[in-house]
Amino acid sequence: MEVTKHEPLDPQGPAGGQAKPQQQFSPGQTEPAATAGDLSSDVEAAVEREPGDRVRATWIYGPNYRCNWWAPSNTQAYDNPGMYGLILTTHRVRKSRFLHVSKTRDGLVIHDRTRSG
User: Where are the domains of the chain?
Assistant: First the structure.
């Protein structure tokens, strides 16, 4: 008995079905690797920041992350501007973004998916 390997059929194709073409990549382009778990710490280390920023990335699901850039608040209005007590009371979110992150052989690929509207 001879076994023949068939390509998967395209459900959108004609009634007879056609073989689904294999995905092709341009020269130099690599297939993204599947996201293996939480890359939050990698994202925090990779994104750009301003002096004094503290970056916090949170894994939402799949390749999606929420990233907040925390910066020191202006202490001009404080009666004691030298008070450096609780960090949460002296920092504010300077910037917040939704990111789509994938890990490839070359490193992280990060795309900003924040809606501007």
Answer: 40-112
